[in-house]
Amino acid sequence: MKLALILLGLIVLAAARPDDSIEDDIAIEHDIDDDGVVTGSYSFTDPEGNRQFVRYIADDNGYRILESNVVPATIDNVRADGNQGSFTSLESDEDK
Questions:
Q1: Is pLDDT larger for residue 18 or for residue 40?
Q2: Which of 36, 41, 61, 88 sees the fewest Cβ atoms within 10 Å?
Q3: Kindly report the CA angle at 89 between 87 and 92, in degrees rounded to 5?
Q4: Which spans are transmembrane here (predicted)?
């Protein structure tokens, strides 16, 4: 399921620029451990000739980008670090 979501994301990425196809220049690597945790990376060259990359993890906490030059920095220059997709429910805190 996680791998299907990742591949779907890549397809959406490729379809986002129909005039400038990047399909021939996508590199994808991934590994699935015994617990079902997927780690991997993908990269491509954008239409301007820049190499773009994303390193990710997909586990019980969801899909999270660990490192990327595609993800823009915030105004405080904060970039993806793998924690941005980990959320706890307020409802689960109320049950305790």
A1: 40
A2: 88
A3: 140
A4: none
